[in-house]
Specification:
The protein has helices spanning 27-34, 68-77, 122-129, 145-157, and strands spanning 8-10, 15-17, 58-63, 83-90, 104-111, 137-144, 166-172. With 186 residues, it is α/β, with parallel strands linked by helices. It has a domain at 58-172: Rossmann fold (3-Layer(aba) Sandwich). Bound molecules: flavin-adenine dinucleotide.
């Protein structure tokens, strides 16, 4: 079993849209690489989704390809004109997608430029370098657990935000199969 995000659900057609990262390290990544029309996939859930109320002044998002679907959903549902900045780490410019949002959304793409997924400090540096206008905002970071750990430390110990104003979620961990994000430590 692996966790994936419902990118879009159309109950009329019906279809359920999932964006898979294609990689050859694990069974899900490999399955997606060779998936063809007619292949079957068993789905269950959701086990429980965290929904953050859209009440904040501003939002900062930090994501890699695995959390980009969740980020896409989130910015798509933000109130008009809310200020949001998304830092997104991807392999290169070919992996960039268009994000739709009614919010005043700024997107900064961070390219790995040949480095392996889950091995850079780009997201952590971006969040640390982001100037927060006040403390009435929300920061969400998700991606490879080790890479985003410094973000958790920064938000918990240095940024000055209340605990209700941020969440950091390890979506996968380098060299770990079937990483349990519910058990993400720290
Ligand atoms: C709430 C939640 C939502 C998620 N939504 C999505 C989503 O919408 N789309 C999506 O693609 N992923 C998503 N993920 C991440 C996905 O569950 C993991 O990447 C998962 O490990 C993939 O399973 P696997 O069988 O391919 O690899 P595993 O068997 O889990 O791991 C085998 C090896 O592959 C490596 N690995 C795992 N993922 C990657 C990767 N992305 N790139 C490079 N190496 C990797 C591991 O480090 C390990 O060494 C989500 C995770 C969570 C917790």
């Amino acid at each position: 079993m692996r966790d994936y995000t419902i990118r879009e659900l159309n109950r009329v057609e019906p279809f359920l849209d999932i964006d898979f990262v294609l990689h050859d390290h694990g069974i899900a990544g490999r399955w997606a690489q060779t998936a063809k029309r007619g292949d079957q996939l068993g789905c269950l859930g959701p086990r429980g989704s965290m929904v953050v109320k859209d009440v904040f002044d501003w939002y900062v998002f930090a994501a890699d390809e695995t959390s980009l679907p969740a980020l896409g959903r989130w910015v798509g549902e933000l109130r008009p004109e809310t200020s949001a900045h998304a830092y997104i780490e991807v392999a290169n410019a070919d992996a960039e997608i268009t994000l739709h949002s009614a919010a005043d959304l700024t997107v900064t793409w961070l390219h790995r430029d040949g480095a392996a997924a889950g091995t850079t400090t780009k997201l952590a540096e971006a969040v640390r370098g982001h100037e927060m206008p006040n403390l009435d905002g929300y920061v969400w970071a998700a991606g490879e657990a080790g890479s985003i750990k410094p973000i958790r430390h920064y938000l918990a110990d240095e940024a000055g935000l209340d605990r209700a104003n941020w969440d950091v979620d390890g979506y996968w961990r380098l060299n770990v199969s079937n990483f349990d994000h519910h058990g993400d430590e720290d």
